[in-house]
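The data are set out underneath:

___
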Amino acid sequence: MDKQIPKIEKIFLKSNIDLFLPLKLKVAELILSLLKRRKEFGLFVILGWQRKWSKFTDISDKTQDIFAKRHINIMKIKRRSSARHDVSTTINFDGAILIDRKGNVIHSGIIIEGLRPKIIAQKINPGQFKDLSEQFGFKEKVHSRHLAAIASSYIFKNTTVFTVSEETGNFHIFENGKIIYSNIIVF
């Protein structure tokens, strides 16, 4: 998985998303390190979150929002820190982890609502497709986490969105409603 970081860095260097490159890489590294340690979990991270998008959020279980009162900064997480442990505990949560453009993890376990992936898919790639997975360009069928993530990357401008599939372990990165990185990880 460490071999993936140089590939991801090359992709980020071509990106037009105005986020600090080391921050984007740190999030990718953190997710890849979680994939090394634990199998079969799902994850949905939005990097570049702005408070003005709060109308798209809800939470089904306030105990999952462990960062609402105690923010941590992704750039300050060390290999064996309690903050790293806090991030790793969120892989058991439903919903998204929201990180602002400075690297502060501000919420976890957040439901992102009202995205309308079908409408976004039609704007990005009009035509007839058998399902939204194919229309968005996924190589295999994906479910709501990934459809919400790719739609989020389109709606929430200037964000980078990351997902891990609970079923397959696939790791994706999205920007501007497009898959910019996809890696199939075998459990």
In short: The two ends are 13 Å apart (CA to CA). The beta strands are 43-49, 57-58, 72-73, 96-100, 104-112, 160-164, 171-175, 178-183. Residues 4-183 form a domain with the YojJ-like (1 fold (CATH 3.40.1700.10). The chain has a mean pLDDT of 90.
